[in-house]
Amino acid sequence: xxxxxxSAFNLRDKFGDWWDGANSAQRTVFRIVLIGIFYALPMLxxxxxxxxxxxxxxVLFYPLIMFSLMAVGLNVVVGKSGILDLGYVAFFAIxxxxxxxxxxxxPLNFWEILPFAMAFAMLAGVILGLPALRLRGDYLAIITxxxxxxxxxxxxxxxxxxxxxxxxxxxxxxSILGIEFTVMDPRPYYWLTLTLLLLVIWGVIRxxxxxxxxxxEAIREDEDVAEFxxxxxxxxxxxxxxIGGAVGGLAGAIYASQIRSIQPELFTLNLSIMIxxxxxxxxxGNIWGVILGAVILGYAPEKLRFLSDYRIIxxxxxxxxxxxxxxxxxxxxxxxxxxxxxxx
Amino acid sequence: xxxxxxxxDFWSLGLDGLVVGAIYALISLGYTxxxxxxxxxxxxxxxxxxxxxxxxxxxxxxxGFTGYEDPLPLIKxxxxxxxxxTVAAIVSGGSAVLLEIVAYRRLRNMGASRLSSLISxxxxxxxxxxxxxxxxxxxxxxxPRLINKDPFFTVGTLYLSAxxxxxxxxxxxxxxxxxxxxxxxxxxxxxxxxxxxxxxxILMGVNVNRIISYTFLLGGVLAGVGSAFYMVFYETTxxxxxxxxxxxxxxAAVLGGIGNVRGALVGSFALGLIQQYTSxxxxxxxxxxxxxxxxVLVLLVKPTGxxxxxxxxxxx
Lengths: 344, 316
Hints:
The complex is a heterodimer of chains A (344) and B (316).
Chain A: H1 2-6, H2 11-21, H3 24-40, H4 56-80, H5 89-105, H6 110-132, H7 137-157, H8 187-208, H9 211-221, H10 223-228, H11 233-259, H12 269-282, H13 287-303, H14 305-308, H15 311-325, H16 337-343
Chain B: H1 4-8, H2 10-38, H3 45-62, H4 74-110, H5 114-136, E1 141-142, E2 153-155, E3 158-160, H6 162-184, H7 186-196, H8 198-203, H9 208-234, E4 236-237, H10 241-256, H11 261-282, H12 287-301
């Protein structure tokens, strides 16, 4: 208790108290209003939130919503299950390259390619995860780091997928529900990503309240005890890895369809670290926390241009400071949710 | 696949492998020593090495070499080398101690999880790389050629040149000194005691925080000396030079058995040779992929490496 008192600035608990007291109508209204605001964001022309150099709607797509989607995916791996993945960008790259190669060389359109992009990223998750997840902590971190770099080096050295120059003239998504996806307007991409992000959030929340979520939590808290208590640790770690990978692949495919040309240099270790910084800053394990982290860390360098040149310096410093001062992030997860729910 | 270079240059590739291995060894010892006392991979160690190369570069810059003058006479070169190697050792050692205080100490005393320490170290590593990227303006910093690199001794395809001899002889001297420190000094005894059993070491009156600081200092000094050799051999550095060198050195430490000093040496020379021979066959572009594949294979097949974790019984 003393520890909880010490961190008085705890957004999650303050909001959590209100949420617990609200009835279901209040909750539904709150959800609808919040989601409505997010869909309306690109329509707003507010000089306060506008970014000085790039148009606000393109900042909304990249980095804000893209970072959020990837942070939610990485949060399943790092935050929920405690697996430190330093090569998350690999899944993003695989998704992007899958969309680029398939849309150029086959008649498939964006919507048909999406499942493939996710499937290839999941497959990569299995190929890397099956051997690597037998290892613990820092070894696993180094292996995933290596994997991220291998994917990039292979892309640079493989002429069939464009080599170092990458791929250009990637077709965008075909129109759906009367919405056209053009090069000039990033807003439809934002709406598309937001819709998919909401679906992903819904799926992840469902999972975390069920058996996989409890297994992940047990693994994160103490892997040996979890295994001893009969949790199939490798299986659930692998699932976390695959789900995280699928979300990364999804984000990559959308990204490639929007920017229309990709190069291996877009998928460096820096991106993995930025997404990790979002997760750490917002609060590992809490889905709303990591989105808050992604929004703040994506928005701050765009709004404050002096930050953008120094963003990696700033992110690196932030990771050290956060770990030392507030190791659980801005909005930490509630500990032992399930235990508390049952004891009520 | 082209084996012709491998066959024609077998001996000179082997010599280069040993030289590269000696440089890796100096860096991988830092990983291994810190792992021994903390059971933690010091993720920012590659940046300690990078800072060393930067220190060497800036010291040599003070002499005003343009890179076009005649090679220095041997005695003068050794004097300058000793100067910049000492500066690099001091700078790297100092930054390693500072790193431990900033990124690890508080977390360790809080009893934080390994994940927290790791993230903190990664943050520190990125911070350092980016600071030096700003300082160096993202450029490759080229080092003037100070020493005559023409082979002075040739047997078949084996070309012996002064820089390679310097690295091999210099590294051997450092290893002998390290052996002395670890096995015959009070500090070495402290390091071995903490590696073996931290709690018992505390009970026996060992000041663990001080031993950890000294271990970081020792690792940093070795990386600093390694960076001096690296600069003589490769003659270039950049802000993210530490990443691939660090991964190679780490792979070498794991290959030999992390936590094991002798293992780090054997692993480094083995990795140096493997890298030279495989890049002769597959092409230089694939060298780092090969390194990663070796790392993954060792961790999967024999995570304790060739010699296992046994710093307490280590002989250099």
